[in-house]
């Protein structure tokens, strides 16, 4: 849920999704789900010459599994908080496995 | 190409076999014939053919029956366009070949990509759907109007996705280039019309034949179109009955109206053009998710843009699916004005679009939708939204607090499902369920709760005694029980991966510095390894996080829990204190374990958060240790070297190394120094004097410390704190009680300590200025650059800023120095002062920089009661 | 306490945890490597890095089939999410 949570905070921000086939789609993140499927609005494609079929597409739904990277601005991420959230996730895992912390 | 688009390989079997480009389809497993076997459908054909039996059959059927209007449906340009449009052409889309007879070129992989889809019923949504698609095999097939069917059935059937004639490819591609009756091939094998087998298997119409046919029928009236290119389809019971009663195909218009919701005939005016242009059907979409506007719409637009001449040709396309008489278009390619034709085409496309979309109406009943929503919700249910959605929750909380009060209204709603379970629906999530009324939400909530409860109960009885949930903050969390809402309930999952690699527990005590340290104090030990530091820090982070969580859940002060809570916090703080290793002997190792923690950027970032929780006495102890071991800090011992005039003189390794050290220093100044300042500002004069004394005693190389930014910051903080304590503020008229002056003994102690400190640092004072150091280090043209304004704007500004820090220290020295020492101070800095003032007065210097320099110098001179303007 | 302390190193992911907030080296499928500051990870090895430098190692093959010396394409990103299924390894980047 960490990354789901993470992406939720990026909604309505402009991000660039780089797919595993090198297609880079920039657009406004409209929604995301637990599988990290992504819906983008107002998209533009890097190198449209190579991907002419994307030219008229204005919004799209990207299956999470085809994503390689998602690029975003550094200002839209609170890294300290993100690290804490990661640690908390880890903490939960450990507790779940029965290793009581306190 | 467009054939491939519609989900079947447009190549003829024999061509596929001999065409080298197609001999290796991208998805061999999905070759039509393989699929055939794999799914065990199309048995009727399997005796002798492994190739496209349905294609042939349909081809045949189409010709025999009503394929006269294929051109209408598929928009075949009488001129016949080639099919070698390359969908993913590298740079420019290849023009469709106009020589229809010529063999097709290599076909892009997309062609076969969708091939598997037509097979029977991959989309059967339910068992019923599945069976219905099988059943149709035995039904004599006739082209039936798609519309005549209840939408539920039709959309459930896989075939309908592909063979929908009303959603003609022409809409997509403008002018259907291919003359091959490809669409027929789409029909699921299981639904092959009986005609298939009447036909010699090997016979497949050639392109020419088909084109000839098409050309011949080109001018047939439009009105019959819809039914003609119809694929054999899955029939509803009523339809089948109807079929059996009549032997001739019924023109669609004469059929009883289907039990469909009324379909709009014209596009709503608000319909965006994008959606008008978007394709009526998407071969790759699942039946339940029509996604208008995405993907393939671009194909059309692209074609339009690339082949304007095609756009100019009125398209004889588009089956006017259920167009009412009112909107019945003028029979097309009359020499009507171009614009009119285009408008018509547009309208038709819209109608087809709406029609195609509405095929999916009622695919899911409301109970289906509820079910899905429940599943989604149950995935989001947690006992505490702050555990699983920590980042988003806190992030938005921080954001909200920044946006402050004017946007006070909550964007995050925590839907309380039950006292023990809650759902966080923050802004983004909200939009997912935005259309649901609160009532629905409430209802679902109770359902989800029941779901969760029953599963929890089930789990409990199933493996009672085994670990099932855990108590966190006094509440039971059933994490594991929620995992399986979409299927199998398993104890491992995203949040709790099954441990695959089990390293024996406790095998690596050497990584745990804290556990051993305190018992064996007094002994010299090797410094902590980086790994040990990292372990220690991560444990510390965990503790701090737990403590922070604990603080958030403070009970009301009167309650009984208060005491327990307080004790718990105390315990955590003690644990943190122990792990900080501040109480380790000073010389236990070099660097001191505490300093080792601080040398990691991670440790620096943690420090302010730790300091917040420590009691004051412990914090002061920490400060003392920090100052005593200050030279061991990486930011002191490995301070970034003075800047060079020309970064291009450095090699890459140097640059990277410098950048890393600079970043460390920045982090230290940002994370540790403020806390240090804050602590120093609470010290009394005696303590400040003691701390400065430590500096003089424990810093063998005071100059080295002072020439670093953290060092300058430390000394400046100590000196200015002392000065503010010594200078008794003027008596407050409102508060007649005299403010007690500093203890004379302390003042004396301070003055002696300061004198010694000044004595140590005075000779090095001019060398502390980064600009001077840089100038000294620079050689050749570099010296020029530094003196002049050749350095980059940013760098020179940064340089002035760092100069200011040192001038600040000089000023602090000046205000503390007794008069006789002040002369020495000015003497020591005379050259630097003159140089800076001259530089500021130099007309070449940009005004803002000149101002900055003068301000820097005056900071010092004002401390002595002087001003830069007094300098000639 | 000690039990937990011991428990924390029993998982491979705990090693990744040590690098949280620190600079790491990542090897990805498709001959890509990354260096950056690690800010988040999960069990799938989904990652968030900042100040990322990506190196793509490319071997061009000439017309005669001979491989040219490998070259490296570099890109930089200020903040990057990496989907876990591309990740081959994560390792601390020691000075």
From TrEMBL, chain A:
InterPro entries: LSM_dom_sf, Sm, Sm_dom_euk/arc, U6_snRNA_Lsm2. GO terms for cellular component: catalytic step 2 spliceosome; Lsm1-7-Pat1 complex; P-body; precatalytic spliceosome; U4/U6 x U5 tri-snRNP complex; U6 snRNP. Pfam families: LSM (PF01423). The keyword RNA-binding applies. It is found in: Nucleus. Belongs to the snRNP Sm proteins family. This is LSM complex subunit LSm2. It comes from Tremella mesenterica. The lineage of its organism: Eukaryota, Fungi, Dikarya, Basidiomycota, Agaricomycotina.
From TrEMBL, chain B:
It is found in: Cytoplasm, P-body; Nucleus. GO terms for biological process: deadenylation-dependent decapping of nuclear-transcribed mRNA; P-body assembly. GO terms for cellular component: nucleus; P-body. The keyword RNA-binding applies. One of its GO terms (molecular function) is RNA binding. Residues 249-271, 327-336 have a biased composition (Pro residues). Its main location: cytoplasm. It comes from the Eukaryota. Residues 168-179 have a biased composition (Polar residues). The keyword Cytoplasm applies. Residues 1-35, 69-200, 240-295, 309-338 are annotated as: Disordered. PANTHER family: PROTEIN ASSOCIATED WITH TOPO II RELATED-1, ISOFORM A, TOPOISOMERASE II-ASSOCIATED PROTEIN PAT1. This is mRNA decay factor PAT1 domain-containing protein. The lineage of its organism: Eukaryota, Fungi, Dikarya, Basidiomycota, Agaricomycotina.
Automatic annotation (TrEMBL), chain C:
The keyword RNA-binding applies. The lineage of its organism: Eukaryota, Fungi, Dikarya, Basidiomycota, Agaricomycotina. GO terms for molecular function: RNA binding. One of its GO terms (biological process) is mRNA splicing, via spliceosome. Pfam families: LSM. This is LSM complex subunit LSM3. Its main location: nucleus. Residues 11-95 form the Sm domain. It is found in: Nucleus. GO terms for cellular component: spliceosomal complex; U4/U6 x U5 tri-snRNP complex; U6 snRNP. LSm subunits form a heteromer with a doughnut shape. Keywords: mRNA processing, mRNA splicing, Nucleus, Ribonucleoprotein, RNA-binding, Spliceosome. Binds specifically to the 3'-terminal U-tract of U6 snRNA. It comes from Tremella mesenterica (Jelly fungus).
């Amino acid at each position: 849920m960490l990354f789901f949570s993470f992406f939720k905070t990026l909604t309505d921000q402009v991000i660039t999704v780089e797919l595993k086939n090198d297609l880079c789609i920039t657009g406004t993140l409209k929604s995301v789900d637990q599988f990290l499927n992504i819906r983008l609005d107002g998209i533009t494609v890097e190198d449209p010459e190579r991907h002419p079929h994307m030219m008229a597409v204005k919004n799209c739904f990207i299956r999470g599994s085809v994503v390689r990277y998602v690029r975003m601005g550094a200002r839209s991420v609170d890294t300290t908080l993100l690290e804490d959230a990661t640690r908390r996730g880890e903490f939960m895992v450990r507790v779940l496995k029965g290793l009581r912390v306190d | 190409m467009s054939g491939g688009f519609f989900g079947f390989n447009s190549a003829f079997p024999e061509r596929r076999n001999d065409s080298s480009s197609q001999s290796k389809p991208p998805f061999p497993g999905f070759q039509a014939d393989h699929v055939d076997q794999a799914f065990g459908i199309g048995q009727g054909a399997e005796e002798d053919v492994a190739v496209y039996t349905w294609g042939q059959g349909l081809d045949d059927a189409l010709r025999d029956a009503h394929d006269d209007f294929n051109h209408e449906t598929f928009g075949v340009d009488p001129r016949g366009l080639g099919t070698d449009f390359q969908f993913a052409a590298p740079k420019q889309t290849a023009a469709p070949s106009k020589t229809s007879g010529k063999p097709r070129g290599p076909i892009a992989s997309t062609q076969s990509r969708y091939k598997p889809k037509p097979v029977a019923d991959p989309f059967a949504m339910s068992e019923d759907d599945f069976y219905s698609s099988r059943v149709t095999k035995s039904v004599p097939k006739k082209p039936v109007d798609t519309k005549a069917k209840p939408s539920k059935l039709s959309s459930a059937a896989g075939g309908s996705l592909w063979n929908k004639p009303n959603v003609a490819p022409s809409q997509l591609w403008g002018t259907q280039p291919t003359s091959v009756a490809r669409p027929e091939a789409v029909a699921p094998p299981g639904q092959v019309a009986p005609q298939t087998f009447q036909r010699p298997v090997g016979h497949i119409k050639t392109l020419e034949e088909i084109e000839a046919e098409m050309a011949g029928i080109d001018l047939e009236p439009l009105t019959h179109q819809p039914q003609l290119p119809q694929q054999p389809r899955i029939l509803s019971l009523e339809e089948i009955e109807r079929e059996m009663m009549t032997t001739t195909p019924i023109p669609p218009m004469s059929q009883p109206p289907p039990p469909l919701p009324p379909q709009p005939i014209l596009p709503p005016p608000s319909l965006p053009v994008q959606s008008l242009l978007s394709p009526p059907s998407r071969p790759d979409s699942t039946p339940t998710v029509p996604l208008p506007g995405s993907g393939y719409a671009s194909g059309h637009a692209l074609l339009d843009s690339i082949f304007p001449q095609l756009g100019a040709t009125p398209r004889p396309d588009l089956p006017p699916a259920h167009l009412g008489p009112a909107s019945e278009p003028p029979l097309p390619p009359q020499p009507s004005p171009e614009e009119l034709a285009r408008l018509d085409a547009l309208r038709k496309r819209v109608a087809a679009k709406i029609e195609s979309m509405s095929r999916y109406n009622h695919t899911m009943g409301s109970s289906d939708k509820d079910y899905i929503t429940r599943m989604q919700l149950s995935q989001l249910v947690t006992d505490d939204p702050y555990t699983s959605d920590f980042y988003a929750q806190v992030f938005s909380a921080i954001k909200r607090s920044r946006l402050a009060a004017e946007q006070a209204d909550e964007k995050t709603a925590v839907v309380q499902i039950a006292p023990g379970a809650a759902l966080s629906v923050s802004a983004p999530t909200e939009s997912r369920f935005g259309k649901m009324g609160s009532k629905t939400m409430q209802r679902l909530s109770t359902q989800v709760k029941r779901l969760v409860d029953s599963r929890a109960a089930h789990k409990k009885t199933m493996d009672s005694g085994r670990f099932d949930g855990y108590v966190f903050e006094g509440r039971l969390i059933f994490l594991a029980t929620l995992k399986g809402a979409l299927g199998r309930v398993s104890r491992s999952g995203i949040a709790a991966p099954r441990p695959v690699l089990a390293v024996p527990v406790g095998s690596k005590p050497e990584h745990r510095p804290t556990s051993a340290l305190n018992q064996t104090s007094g002994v010299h030990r090797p410094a902590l390894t980086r790994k040990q530091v990292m372990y220690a820090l991560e444990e510390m982070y965990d503790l701090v996080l737990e403590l922070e969580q604990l603080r958030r859940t403070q009970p009301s002060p009167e309650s009984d829990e208060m005491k327990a809570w307080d004790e718990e916090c105390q315990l955590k703080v003690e644990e943190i204190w122990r792990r900080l290793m501040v109480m380790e002997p000073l010389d236990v190792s070099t660097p001191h374990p505490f300093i080792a923690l601080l040398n990691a950027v991670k440790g620096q970032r943690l420090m302010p958060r730790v300091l917040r929780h420590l009691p004051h006495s412990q914090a002061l102890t920490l400060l003392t240790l920090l100052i005593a071991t200050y030279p061991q800090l990486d930011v002191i011992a490995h301070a970034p070297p003075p800047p060079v005039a020309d970064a291009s003189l450095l090699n890459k390794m140097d640059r990277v190394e410098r950048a890393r050290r600079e970043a460390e220093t920045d982090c230290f100044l940002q994370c540790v120094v403020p806390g240090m300042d804050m602590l120093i500002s609470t010290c009394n004069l005696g303590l400040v004097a003691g701390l400065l004394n430590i500096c003089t005693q424990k810093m063998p190389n005071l100059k080295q410390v002072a020439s670093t930014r953290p060092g300058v910051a430390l000394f400046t903080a100590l000196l200015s704190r002392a000065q503010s304590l010594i200078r008794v503020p003027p008596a407050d008229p409102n508060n007649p009680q005299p403010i007690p002056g500093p203890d004379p003994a302390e003042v004396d102690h301070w003055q002696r300590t300061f004198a010694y400190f000044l004595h140590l640092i005075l000779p090095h004072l001019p060398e502390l200025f980064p600009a001077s150091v840089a100038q000294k280090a620079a050689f050749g043209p570099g010296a020029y650059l530094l003196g002049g304004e050749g350095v980059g704007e940013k760098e020179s500004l940064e340089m002035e800023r760092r100069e200011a820090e040192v001038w600040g220290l000089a000023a602090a020295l000046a205000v503390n120095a007794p008069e006789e020492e002040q002369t020495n101070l000015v003497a020591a800095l005379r050259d630097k002062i003159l140089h800076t003032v001259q530089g500021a007065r130099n007309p070449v210097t940009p005004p803002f920089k000149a101002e900055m320099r003068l301000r820097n110098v005056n900071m010092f001179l004002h401390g002595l009661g002087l001003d830069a303007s007094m300098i000639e | 306490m000690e039990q937990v302390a011991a428990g924390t190193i029993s998982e491979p992911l705990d090693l990744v945890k040590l690098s949280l907030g620190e600079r790491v080296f990542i090897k990805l499928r498709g001959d890509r490597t990354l260096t950056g500051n690690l800010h988040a990870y999960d069990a799938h090895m989904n990652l968030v890095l900042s100040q990322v430098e990506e190196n793509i190692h490319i071997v061009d093959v000439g017309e005669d089939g001979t491989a040219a010396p490998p070259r490296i394409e570099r890109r930089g990103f200020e903040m990057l999410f990496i989907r876990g299924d591309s990740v081959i390894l994560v390792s601390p980047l020691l000075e």
